[in-house]
Structures are given as structure tokens and as C-alpha cells.
Amino acid sequence: MGNPFGNPGGLGNLGGMMKQAKKVYEAVQKVQEELAEEKIEAASGGGMVKAVVNGKGALLEIKIDPQVVDPDDVEMLEDLVTTAVREALSEAGKLEAERIQAATGGLNLPGMF
Questions:
Q1: Considering the entire predicted model, what is its pTM?
Q2: Kindly report the CA angle at 89 between 84 and 90, in degrees rounded to 5?
Q3: 41 near 52, Cβ under 8 Å?
Q4: Which of 18, 48, 78, 80 could cysteine-pair with 68, CB 3.0–4.6 Å?
Q5: SS3 of residue 79 by DSSP
Q6: Rg (CA), the chain
Q7: Residues contacting residue 26 through CB under 8 Å, at least 6 positions apart
Q8: Hey, how many other C-beta atoms are within 10 angstroms of the C-beta on 95?
Q9: Burial class (CB in 10 A: 0-12, 13-18, 19+), 27
Q10: How does 36-51 read in b/e, with b if 16+ C-beta sit within 10 Å?
Q11: Residue 15 or residue 71, greater confidence
Q12: What is the pLDDT of residues 1-53, one digit of tens each?
């Protein structure tokens, strides 16, 4: 009876697939390192509050214009900070997805990276 994999050698082109997988993995690792160095800034309140995150989504800093600090309206400042951080994190997520897709040649490898 013949080999069920259609290759007399046994496992098809498993070696080639493993080499390709290793290249993709290394490319993604490089992208991950680069993303950790990227800085993404987002603002709210017309630029009165700014949040800076890295490409991996770690919050690096918050900048608040003193004019927006009103002790009688702390809730507004909290909302502005939340909005700026959310926007920065969203942009970081988009950047990461774009870079990973480029590194993997568009392959969808859920759970691997």
C-alpha cells in the first residue's frame, strides 16, 4: 500500500515547512521588539490631555495641560485621560496588527504570536 502522505519519503515537505515557520517566528519576534520601542501619542480635549503608549500597548506617560485641571470638575479630567489612553491603545493595536500581518505575509496564525 502507498504512503498516505503521497511522498515516498514519509512526511512530505515538513522540513521546508518548519524552516518557513521559523522564519516567520523570527520576523514576528523582530516586529515585537520594534513595537516595544515605538511611541504612539493620542490626545483628547483639543490636545489638553495626551497619552503616550508603546507599540505593545504599555502606557508610557500622561501629559495634562494645567488649564484643564479644575478641582470642581475632576470627572471631566478623568474622562479626558480615559479617552486619550483608549485612543492611544487602539492605535497601538492597529499598528501591531499591521506589522504582524506584514511580517507573516498575511498568514493568520491565531495563538502563535
A1: 0.74
A2: 100
A3: yes
A4: 48
A5: helix
A6: 23
A7: none
A8: 19
A9: middle
A10: eeeebebbbbeebbbb
A11: 71
A12: 444 545 555 566 888 888 888 888 899 999 999 999 999 999 999 999 999 99
Which grid cell is 59? 502606557
**Does the 14-103 domain belong in CATH 3.40.50.300?**
no
Distance of CA 85 to the CA centre of its chain: 15
Question: CA of 113: how far to CAs of 23, 33, 43, 93, in Å?
Answer: 13, 13, 29, 13
CA-angle at 94, arms to 91 and 96, nearest 5°: 110
State the Cα–Cα distance between residues 37 and 20, nearest whole angstrom. Answer: 26
Confidence band for 94, pLDDT divided at 50, 70 and 90: very high
Instruction: Give the H or E element holding residue 88.
Output: helix 74-103
Tell me the domain boundaries of the chain. Answer: 14-103
Candidates 93, 53, 38; CA nearest to 101 is: 93
